[in-house]
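Minutes, project check-in

Agenda point 3 was the complex the collaborators sent over. CS summarized: two entities, 232 residues total, and the question is how they sit relative to each other. Sequences were read into the notes so everyone works from the same version.
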Amino acid sequence: QSALTQPPSASGSPGQSVTISCTGTSSDVGGYKYVSWYQHHPGKAPKLMIYEVSTRPSGVPDRFSGSKSGNTASLTVSGLQAEDEADYYCSSYAGSSKEVFGGGTKLTVL
Amino acid sequence: ELQLVESGGGLVQPGRSLRLSCAASGFTFGDYAMHWVRQAPGKGLEWVSGISWNSANIGYADSVKGRFTISRDNAKNFMYLQMNSLRAEDTALYYCAKGRVAHQPPNYMDVWGKGTTVTVSS
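CS then shared the predicted structure for the full assembly.
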């Protein structure tokens, strides 16, 4: 049960788009449609942004989108805003009732 | 308002035990799976354990399997995490989180508490 691989950091200017990758294996990301993404502002509770690879919960702006190809999932944030600056974590079902998170990506809005 | 409140954290010596509690309100607790997620100082999120709505399906991270036990009391709207044989590496902020659906998988967590801190040190 190894953590999914995310880039430690990502950045973009306001209005730009940025994509964060999340690489796993055929035993987790590649094997199931159960991939989710969380936004975490330090000191606050994490927030579910995307579930089932590409579905946005009610209230999440459509600037946030998700996709998956093979063993790699991706989160794209379009039209970057200052409030998007946070840590982002992917998560995937890994079989046997287990869940695994990625190492997290710190998104900086320049 | 949907709310999760964790309690039971504190300073504990290596090898000792601690029980965390999570009080739920504002939703029908028994209709949803529940999870524990932790974040060690300066580290990322780590899923610890999850339990389905009826406790029939339970999962643990490899790092805690055999030492931690998750349980729930739907009549009282509480979830628990019994942590035994604690190690320094268990030091973290422990979050309680509500699953988006009753069963697991999937393990989507759509409501989170503010967390309770566990420090394992002699």
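Noted in discussion: Chain B has a mean pLDDT of 97.
Follow-up: revisit at the next meeting once the mutant set is ready.
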